[in-house]
Amino acid sequence: MPISYLAPDQSAVFGFTAGTGAAAETGEVDNLVVSRLVPGPANANWQRCEANGDGARDVSDAVFVLAWLFTAGSAPACEIACDCNADGSRDISDPIFDLTYQFLGGPAPAAPYPACEPFEGCPEACR
Questions:
Q1: Domain locations in the chain?
Q2: What is d(CA 104, CA 127) in angstroms, rounded to the nearest whole number?
Q3: Nearest CA to 68 among 80, 55, 84, 52?
Q4: Closest residue by Cα to residue 49 from 71, 92, 88, 79
Q5: What angle do CA 39, 127, 50 make, to 5 degrees?
């Protein structure tokens, strides 16, 4: 039966799993696994690459960025989240990076992706 422990400062969660295996007759634990889970960033409000704000990570996010950059499309609600490749700028390389990840097995966006991040000035949109 798994047991969890939340550190007093809530900085980490430890999970414990124990099994009796061959020692079941004596009631001794013969294996113990301890895992430390680091919680996501505080105040996380948006997912990187989720450009159009619909809560779904799909091809429409890359299309939204392309429309915004090249056809005077609507501005994103969280412009910094459109920096899909995390290079500090929003440009053509971001939708290319996103499409490469989604369809060609390219690298994933920067951690903590797919978890949400605390992007300053962006509305709460994590689902």
A1: 3-37, 41-127
A2: 25
A3: 52
A4: 79
A5: 100
CATH 1.10.1330.10 fits 41-127, yes or no: yes
Q: At residue 37, what are phi and psi to the nearest 5 degrees?
A: -110, 125
Buried b (16+ CB within 10 A) or exposed e, 65-102: bbebeeeeeeebebeebbbbbeeeebeeebbbbbbebb
Measured CA to CA, the distance from residue 90 to residue 74 in angstroms comes to: 15
Nearest to 51 by CA among 111, 9, 107, 94: 94
d(CA 112, CA 97): 17
How far from each other are the two terminal CA atoms of the chain, in whole angstroms?
30
Question: pLDDT per residue over 45-80, tens digit each?
Answer: 899 999 999 989 999 999 999 999 999 999 999 999
Please report where in the chains the tokens 């007759």 appear, as a residue: 25
- pLDDT tens digit sequence for 12-27: 555 555 555 555 565 5
- The confidence score (pLDDT) of residue 2 equals 44
